[in-house]
Amino acid sequence: MTDIDHTRRRLLAGATLLGTGAALTGCGDSSPLAAAHAADTASGDHTTDVVIVGAGLAGLTAARRLTASGVRTLVVEARDRVGGRALNHPLAAPARPGTIVEVGGQWVGPTQDRVLALIAELGLETFKTWDIGDYLDYRNGQLVPYGHLFPADPLNLGLNRIPPTDPAGAAEAAVAIQQLNDMAARVPLEAPWTATDAIAWDSQTFQSWVDANLFTPGGRDLLQLAIEAVFSAQPRDLSLLHVLFYIHSAGSLDHLINTTGGAQESRIVGGSQRIALRMAEELGDRVLLNAPVTQIAYDARSVTVRGERFSVRAQRAIIAIPPTLAGRIRYSPALDGLRDQLTQRVPMGTVIKVQCVYPTPFWRDSGLNGQVTSDTGPVKITFDNSPPDAHVGVMMGFIEGEDGRRALRQSREERRQGVIDSFVRYFGEQAAEPLDYIEKNWAAEEWTRGCYAGYMPPGVWLDYGEALRAPIGRLHWAGTETAEVWNGYFDGAVRSGERAAEEVLALL
Amino acid sequence: MTDIDHTRRRLLAGATLLGTGAALTGCGDSSPLAAAHAADTASGDHTTDVVIVGAGLAGLTAARRLTASGVRTLVVEARDRVGGRALNHPLAAPARPGTIVEVGGQWVGPTQDRVLALIAELGLETFKTWDIGDYLDYRNGQLVPYGHLFPADPLNLGLNRIPPTDPAGAAEAAVAIQQLNDMAARVPLEAPWTATDAIAWDSQTFQSWVDANLFTPGGRDLLQLAIEAVFSAQPRDLSLLHVLFYIHSAGSLDHLINTTGGAQESRIVGGSQRIALRMAEELGDRVLLNAPVTQIAYDARSVTVRGERFSVRAQRAIIAIPPTLAGRIRYSPALDGLRDQLTQRVPMGTVIKVQCVYPTPFWRDSGLNGQVTSDTGPVKITFDNSPPDAHVGVMMGFIEGEDGRRALRQSREERRQGVIDSFVRYFGEQAAEPLDYIEKNWAAEEWTRGCYAGYMPPGVWLDYGEALRAPIGRLHWAGTETAEVWNGYFDGAVRSGERAAEEVLALL
């Protein structure tokens, strides 16, 4: 697809223009992805109604909603592109020109109604994640294929993504998942700190809960892997209350970990970044790229957002970036202690997303769906990430949490070797020589600083939860970390943008 | 004292000068504290050997050490004053002119050898914290005075600051303290993550340890109060491993919580900020005030530190500010993920330091030493903070952790009323009408963002500990959060500054 290129060409030029309607339409269809224009820095003094910081899904959704209501907006984005944690990467030949893989977030699934509605509105289409064939489980040095045990999962036991390699462990994990789902249902999404057991649950790590409630090594391993895969953090990093909130926010732990029926069910034709690119296209010159915000001044009458060579004056601001990045902006007057200290306490997860390209998805020939769970890193979770028509094969893996942190200071070559070793362990020697190796280390991305999302260590929800979304004067907060439903996912980002836009509309 | 004024006058003017030797000497002796000159922003392009970010005790100590070795340095400080978390506040009449109280850190104690040596070198003197008379314990609605049970503490039971009001609780707390001291001794100060039990200890909150090891409500309350008082955070916020590291870093939990014999033993004549002011005096124009750093660029040959209207080019940089503030600077190239993600994970504690001035320290007349422990907030810990000659009485209290966070969004008047209610509860109606109320909310301080120090939630030492002090190219890290000994205290700050200076000296 060339959405990226087309939009970039127009947006890079947009340094001095203001959104005044007339979104451009049409879509070019030719040139390769342009090199990044890091030297192009936004400049000029702008005036609008609502300034939005961050052109990820949250910020763009807010801008779109406000624009539809006739409100002037300007989105300022630090990077030379839109999409935030959604980023397409074009595959080299022999992949056909225009074929991409996502190096950031990529999936949508059932009950993610707002992002699914947005995808439809934007004229985009989804296709199913490859989920045909057997799973593989690598555990205690053994590689075991297994099928969907309970494809319909009639008892909602959450078993369909739990490998049965260690039957005692699998059974214990299934019971634990049910327990967690039950506890999670008792966490109010709008105010997790008001749960009856909030103090007990926010006083311990998820690891402490595992230590007290699971007794088989297999069961513990499975729970740990599930947490690493969902949060890209270790069970010890997370508040039990946060894990329960997150489960409730998604509906159930099954929703979080399953492919079919869960958050990994579908992909977007042309890549998930197209959601952002299409919105940016609609918004036209209302998006200002290469515009890192360094200061935000606000008073009773207006707000002014500043970068090194630009400023935007508006009635209100929506700050649609993760808390840890929002805390790096200098506010005038300085934000009160509760909000600032919150931003010190919502660290981003740690994940390096890796992909190897092969001539074909050869694992399918062996009846495998390409999805691995493993007790051995660096890659403990894999997916078949081939394009819809599978004209090349793409094996994707995550290096998450502790494994990810260890890999942060490795060289690319060391990481590549670790990844290939993992893939060979799961899929044999055919995996040894990929045509291409693609990696994205989100912790090193200056304008994200970790993925998938910000999370809450113990104690944060209790003492700082109320500062997560509450506006401060003319400043409003968005971003998936502020979402009640599908927090941490594209859907949560979209919902947060819609909510922030409504908040502002009611006050203009 | 007029150190402040004298130093400020010279330093405020120092925007364009470089330290090239010839520290100014002498000390003025006249004018009242000048108003802050927020509008004075440092400007100009400077060149030096070592640029130091932050004029707290760590940064100034490093500058002093480097200067003594003949190395050119320039300290850039965001505020219009030196001292960081050390700040003198002049008392109004009827206190004699020049009388101060500290609104930041104020104490030193035995084994804090480096700060004690520095104090002596700078010609400053200490005096004992008022510790004569009975303690008060307020618990379950009862106010109970008690004496030093074991003044000599021959068995090192750590009992002398543990109120005996609830004997079962006190006994259990004493045993727990001994247990913690024993565990702490097994944490290597230079690498806590290498402790034999590091994984178990860093996987749980301190609250989880209390829940598993203390069974009387009284014992739990006492441990909680000790942790709140030492960390200005809740037991649920802290990694057990971090608490153990911190205890070992100070020598024992007794050292942390005791007045006589502990970290609260002595005060500095003229106020603790004089340590910084005297160093700044020596450094003269090598300190640049009103110079918030926004960017640091570094490569194989040099480092350039920039603010809005100034730059400093040097061979190396020492960044002597807490991790959460260091993370707000923009680095070029961007810091690697491990270091950046560390800065997302070391939040500052939460404390509002409050003081009421009375015509006399009237509690002394009742045989009280002014030190309270309490189960009821907002103020649960108090100290007699009167000047050495007690010509006025000053009652000081801390609003810490959870209480502090609740108070962050109260008005000053609401906080004042809560403080006076607490003081009246402990010392009677005579406390009801102070001559003056002084408060300092460190979470709202733009260039500190919380006190006493940054702390580690679970999991941080294990996965990020190695990034705390390790230099990155030409960037070196100081600040009390990086100290092995007396981490979080003045002494740790001084040691970190000395260590960073040695690091740099070995490489110049």
UniProtKB/TrEMBL annotation, chains A, B:
It comes from the Bacteria. The keyword Oxidoreductase applies. GO terms for molecular function: oxidoreductase activity. FAD binds at E77, A78, V293, E481. SUPFAM superfamilies: FAD-linked reductases, C-terminal domain, FAD/NAD(P)-binding domain. Belongs to the flavin monoamine oxidase family. This is Monoamine oxidase.
